[in-house]
Amino acid sequence: MKMSKMLMLTMKEVPAEAEIASHQLMLRAGLMRKMVSGVYNYMPLGLQVLKKVENVVREEMNNAGAQEILASAMIPAELWQQSGRWDAYGAEMIRFKDRNDRDFCLGPTHEEVFTDLVRSEIKSYKQLPINLYQIQTKYRDERRPRFGVMRSREFVMKDAYSFDKDQEGLDLSYNKMHDAYVNIFKRCGIDAKAVEADSGAIGGSNSAEFMVQSEVGEDDVVFCDSCNYAANIEKAQAVAEECAKEELKELKEIETPNARTIEDLVKFFNTTEKKFAKTLIFNADGKIVAVMVRGDREVNETKVANALGGVNSLEMASAEEVLKATNAAVGFAGPINIKVDTLLVDAEVTKMYNFIVGANKTGYHFENVNYDRDFKGTVGDFRNVTSGETCPKCGGKVTISRGTEVGHIFKLGTKYSEAMDAKFIAEDGTKKPFIMGCYGIGVTRTLASIIEQHHDDNGIVWPLQVAPYQVSVIAVNSKDEEQMRIAEEIYNKLTDMGVEALLDDRKERAGVKFKDADLMGIPMRVTVGKKIVDGQVEFKLRNCEDIEVINIDDVYNKVN
Ligand code: ATP
Ligand code: MG
Ligand code: MG
Ligand code: MG
């Protein structure tokens, strides 16, 4: 591509609306332009990269035996009514009516469409397994579009759907997709880790999200420091809750509540539903002097009351009364020593709730105690999963960090095939629902994640595999005919070799050309300047400071 002819939209200024590096650079390097919130138009350079990422995805999907199709983005409501999701999907779905008043949506995902397709076309187990995919534009009216194409309202997704005759088949299909995803993200140069995800009603380890660790990620991911356990926060919470339920069973066997130890109480509070924040306050001797619970009081006060041996409905108490009562209960005369433990409750949030406060003794509790009014100090909040907690797999310590979900693989089972009556004739002649899996990759989000992981102060640093162009050939002095001629010759020869090259033949200063090549992230740069009198040019890699002076003929070996 000759840059004098190209729609070049690089800009020096950092656009005010862009908060994160990838968003800023996609605008600055001229990859895209915003049309309206969460909706972008791809410019030549952006489209070039998008195609590269799509092709990596396509090649690996094809290698894994999946077949590409292209479904329509316009989907009739009937399909969604059959699966029960027309009402369930909510405001994220973009809906409209055709001229005959028939309901449609712009597809946010395509389980229904693919299930419908397969139910009409596939009749027998002999035609299974099959995995169909598409790379297509999806529409979701996100509550909060942000960070450019990281969370946009229109985005490109690769979505695949597998259909098997039995569970073993699904396991195989799922594992194939898992491996394909590992290859895809590796080839894109991003470090994405498969983490266990909560698969809701279906249960089991049937869903994994591919997460890129990133400060700008919108998800919390739990990693074990000692083993390879990794899960998204929802899954980790669910596992923690399961464990807690087991412990609760044991706790119930303790008969005299007042005999409980601090550990028993901590365990108990971890078993109550996680929407309730639980706070225990200890005195200097490590005894519980106060328990604070917020949330759904009706359910919870009873639970707390039972845990503590029964609460009489007491009047609202002042801080002093609380102190007196709790101190009396534990026989401790001094001021309450509030011990800080693990994650801190945000004081602002705490202020909004009323608590039950009391000692580990029957009758010494107050309702409706307000943190700010009746209590001050730092409080510890026992959440189910926090950094430093125990790994459910190996007992090591876990760390929570932020992550971006770039892909998601999911064993659906018969959820959609049952609901939509999608059946095949099995080996024994009976009709059975397809056993399904679905597998998504956010292609445009992946593109942004690549930039997030590969950039420096001067701009993007594309990994070679997805670079829009591999080489940029720059004539230092555009008024020098010889330089221009040689630059063009190199460019032509590279192009003939099948190398995707840019020729910067613009009437610009060399500095501007270098800056743009860096901003656009082109991996290799060939600079044609004064050294051509000795038959030489300069060669530089984007991710390396060194400049090599080489013979013109060596350019072609270097680049290959
Ligand atoms: P998120 O949790 O980020 O909202 P999701 O779980 O709703 O994503 P899926 O339904 O699993 O998304 O879709 C498959 C993939 O599509 C996601 O893993 C993500 O990479 C991508 N994706 C989802 N929503 C968006 C969006 N609004 N903008 C860009 N990519 C998206
Ligand atoms: Mg979402
Ligand atoms: Mg998600
Ligand atoms: Mg998801």
From TrEMBL:
Origin: domain of life: Bacteria
Entry EC number(s): 6.1.1.15
Domain Aminoacyl-transfer RNA synthetases class-II family profile: 33-463
Subcellular location: Cytoplasm
Catalytic activity: tRNA(Pro) + L-proline + ATP = L-prolyl-tRNA(Pro) + AMP + diphosphate
Similarity comment: Belongs to the class-II aminoacyl-tRNA synthetase family. ProS type 1 subfamily.
Protein name (record): Proline--tRNA ligase
